[in-house]
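Batch job 17 of 40 flagged for manual review because the log was empty.
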Amino acid sequence: MVLRSVWWDRNELPEVEPGRLSGEWDVIVVGAGITGVTTAALLARAGRSVALVEARRVGSGTTGGSTAKVSIQQGTHFSRIARRHRPSVLRSYAEANREGLAWLDRFCREHDVACEARTSYTYATTAKGRRSVRAELDALHAGGVAEAAWTDGPPLPFQTTGAVLLPDQRQVDPVALVAALAADARRHGAVVIEGDRVRRVHGRHPVRVRTEHGGASARTVVVATNMPILDRGGFFARATPQRSYSIAFRTDRPAVDGMFLSADGPTRSLRDADGGRLLLVGGDGHRTGAATSEQQHLESLRAWTHEHFPGAEETRAWSAQDYAPASGLPYVGPLLPGAEHLLVAGGYSKWGFTNGVAAALAVAGRLLDGHQPWASVFDPWATRRLTGLPGAALANGEVGLEMAGGWLRPLRPRPGSGPAEGAGRVRYDRPGRPTAAARVDGVERDLSAVCTHLGGVVRWNDAEHSWDCPLHGSRFDADGAVLEGPATCGLRRQRS
């Protein structure tokens, strides 16, 4: 089965010819996920000349692979923030997410995009999970989310030890939503360019953007690629890349009434679609490029679903990537202190449909001289970010070990003459030259195994037939082309 999200099946978007960025603009927005398209729409409405440039298709990255829960309640994320920050930070974070949800809900109503109300639940299945959920309820209340409440019996067909619930949240079709946002941006004069990957951003007055097919200049550039594609600012060292999985199942009757996320691991996420005719099961996440079988994570989701929802028939399986900052807070603001000409937005810890819209509102406010008191909570250079340093140091220690291990791992002898169909492996053809060899559709491809971002050695992803870098989450297809991550150049062909 090809891994492709169910949202792309539901939305027959017209094919587009690869575009070419050119000209002079007030603002160039890089990345057409939920943050990028919302930012472009907001700025175009305000009369700014805007170019939105996307390497693939609008919504083809994290946004199009999301389960698209639009919720202020976010698993156990509030309690994670509470362990690192003061209650005032929690309150600002909650307000930012309220603003994001309210704006998105209003946009959907005004543009006839389905946006369904649901109660959100974070549930537990163990005594330890129950304690985590209780802590989450306390954190939500500390953040001013007074509507959050406890229930001993969330409506699920298996035993739980309780849950925290929050009524009147939303769920959407993410591809339909970003398509409507892109159309709104175009109606207000923005130009949307697909199929042109940004390779370099440099300069100041103006900022110059170089792409695969062209280039342009702008007063301001907004890099809305979740993980910035620019190494300045060291954002790649502040956040951990995470992959998670989703499977759509056809059911005879609605299987769940609400949006659900487990506090216990491995994570299980549940929501419905198509009026209850589809059950979406997600979770089983891990660090991108970890020493694991991605296919086994999908099998784990399948086995769990068949146990708890017997008779459910699989229709689609896919995965998505997000970034979890060590501080627990998204980063929205200058790439470097004082660099108002070059802004970044990302790090949503899998909650981009409130945070991503809030980030766009914060960016637009910054550029249009607006004032949003809650926006300071996203400031990437605030002193509160220091609370994430121990976690960042640990994550980067793991990166260092992975860097060393990746270069040593191919030295171990491996039997056989080449990879089997659908498999890939890294080997040394000669010292200092690791080769990524994979066989897909009967053709063996030999590429450099060195990630073009910061030199990590890639690993084979057996579910998606891709090469994934365990350092900072860059991913490449079997032919070496960039799929996602901070890398902007593909893996090089290895010559014999």
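Reviewer: the log was empty due to a logging misconfiguration, but the result itself is present. Residues 109 and 207 are 36 Å apart (CA to CA). Unflagging and moving on to job 18.
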